[in-house]
């Protein structure tokens, strides 16, 4: 559904990108996916100093907001990029 690639950038900010290919559907479907991803990430407190790219896979087309939220939190926890306060949130989601 979703893959994350991260790299330390040694800056005071984290930069986040989203990759959604044309295989996901027409522009409206791709934009919907990007809007859902951006909103989920916007609500999280991500550590500073990271370049993060979220790569959408084909089954993300049918995913809803809650499913994406859970998956994003799990991926960021696994990468060690979330602040401690958001890790508490992730245990409540699971």
Describe the structure concisely for a colleague.
This protein is an alpha+beta fold. It has helices at residues 27-42, 65-79, 84-93, and strands spanning 2-8, 15-19, 50-56. α1 (27-42) crosses α2 (65-79) and α2 (65-79) packs across α3.
Strand content: 15-25%
Helix and strand run: EEHEHH
The CATH class name reads Alpha Beta
Secondary structure: number of strands: 3
Distance between the termini: 17 Å
Q: Estimate percent helicity.
A: 40-55%
**What would you say the CATH architecture is?**
2-Layer Sandwich
- How confident overall, as mean pLDDT? 90
CATH topology: Ribosomal Protein S5, domain 2
Count of separate structural domains: 1
Sequence stretches where pLDDT stays below 50 over 5 or more residues: none
- Order of the strands making up the biggest sheet: 1-3-2
Main sheet specs: 3 strands, mixed
Per the principal axes of the C-alpha atoms, what is the gross shape? globular
| Class from helix and strand fractions | alpha+beta
What is the CA-based Rg, rounded?
A: 13 Å
SS summary, helix count: 3
Describe this structure in words.
The protein has 94 residues and is α+β, with helices and mostly antiparallel strands. It has a single domain, classed as Ribosomal Protein S5, domain 2. Helix content is 44%, strand content 20%. Strands 1-3-2 form a 3-stranded mixed sheet, with helices on one face. Strand 2 (15-19), helix 1 (27-42) and strand 3 (50-56) form a beta-alpha-beta unit. Helix 2 packs across helix 3. The longest helix has 16 residues, at 27-42. It starts with a strand and ends with a helix. The model has no long low-confidence stretch (mean pLDDT 90).
């Amino acid at each position: 559904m979703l893959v994350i690639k991260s790299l330390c950038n040694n800056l005071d900010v984290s930069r986040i990108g989203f990759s959604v290919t044309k295989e996901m559907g027409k522009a409206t479907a791709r934009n919907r996916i990007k809007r859902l991803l951006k909103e989920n990430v916007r609500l999280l407190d991500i550590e500073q100093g990271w370049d993060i790219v979220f790569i959408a896979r084909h089954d993300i087309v049918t995913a809803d907001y809650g499913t994406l939220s859970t998956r994003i939190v799990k991926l960021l926890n696994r990468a060690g990029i979330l602040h401690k306060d958001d890790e508490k949130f992730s245990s409540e989601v699971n």
